[in-house]
Design a protein that fits this description.
The chain is α/β, with parallel strands linked by helices. It contains 8 helices and 13 strands. The strands form 3 sheets. Strands 9-8-7-10-11-13-12 form a 7-stranded mixed β-sheet, sandwiched between helices. A 4-stranded antiparallel β-sheet has the order 3-4-5-6, with helices on one face. Strands 1-2 form a two-stranded antiparallel sheet.
Length: 277
């Protein structure tokens, strides 16, 4: 048994995990991919040494990134999922009966292959007939997409090749791909450790979307733990549930939806940079 050190590239915190075994490791065209076994978290997927999901708690992240906007939309039919090669977001999107088409856009097909092999309970829906897998840069895909109701970005951290998914050019392309009730969501790192990134993303989204908001969830294996999610909407308030809560989930529900957004007073102080930590 030994420790696997997670090197968080822009954080003062480093995590280490006891490794009972390395189940898989390879170098893809884009990144180092590893699957390890941990006594507490079970199987863990790491990209470039950074934990992406664990078998124990992956549902917290996948449910929160997916269902807030899916329930805020009155009838999501066509959805783009960018990144998330493990397939967890696709699984959650397909819990909604209204969904007719999911474009699953992942730049690294090796992540999809490895996830299907080692995390079948997470990747269980990627071969659903409603899913069309596109192995390419998501920023390029959205430029030609049309008639989209929801766009969900589940990328690696806001660095490296994922940076194209956090630009005004990308947000404008997302907006242009959408129907009139279109909504967009992405993670924006830790509110504890990456406050400036969280604020920057809100400011960028406001240059494209009329309605912009921020909600959070606690993710045990992500640096800073208090993870932020940014929403951009063409007109609908994401704080409002427009569909009855009828899907099967482990964590997310209509009460969580109502509670996960920052209070208006705290949000205003945050965005105006009146809070220091």
């Amino acid at each position: 048994m030994f420790k696997f050190l997670e090197e968080e590239p822009f954080s003062p915190i480093k995590h280490s995990y006891e490794v009972e075994g390395i189940l898989h490791r390879e170098k893809s065209k884009f990144q180092d991919i590893a699957v390890i076994e941990n006594r507490f978290f079970g199987r863990m997927l790491l990209l470039d040494g950074i934990v992406q999901i664990t078998a124990l708690d992956e549902f917290f992240y996948h449910e929160m990134l997916t269902h807030v906007v899916m329930h805020a939309h009155p009838c999501p039919k066509r959805v783009i999922v960018i990144g998330g090669g493990d397939g967890g977001i696709v699984r959650e999107v397909l819990r909604h009966k209204t969904v007719e088409k999911v474009y699953f856009v992942e730049i690294d097909e090796s992540v999809i292959r490895v996830s299907k092999q080692f995390f079948p309970e997470v990747a269980q829906s990627v071969d659903d007939p409603r899913v069309e897998i596109k192995v390419m840069d998501g920023a390029e895909f959205v430029k030609s997409a049309t008639g989209i109701d929801i766009v969900i970005v589940d990328s690696t951290d806001v660095i490296g090749f994922a940076r194209t998914l956090f630009t005004k050019e990308f947000f404008d392309a997302v907006r242009n791909s959408m129907t009139e009730n279109g909504m967009f969501v992405t993670h924006t790192e830790s509110l504890h450790l990456h406050k400036d990134i969280v604020i920057e993303m809100q400011e960028k989204l406001k240059g494209t979307f009329p309605v912009v908001d921020l909600y959070t969830a606690t993710i045990a294996t992500y640096p800073g733990n208090w993870w932020a999610f940014a929403v951009g909407s063409l007109k609908l308030n994401p704080r409002e549930c427009r569909q009855p809560f009828e899907i099967e989930t482990k964590y997310y529900d209509d009460e969580i939806h109502a509670q996960c957004f920052l209070t208006r007073k705290f949000y205003d102080k945050l965005i105006k940079r009146q809070l220091k930590w």
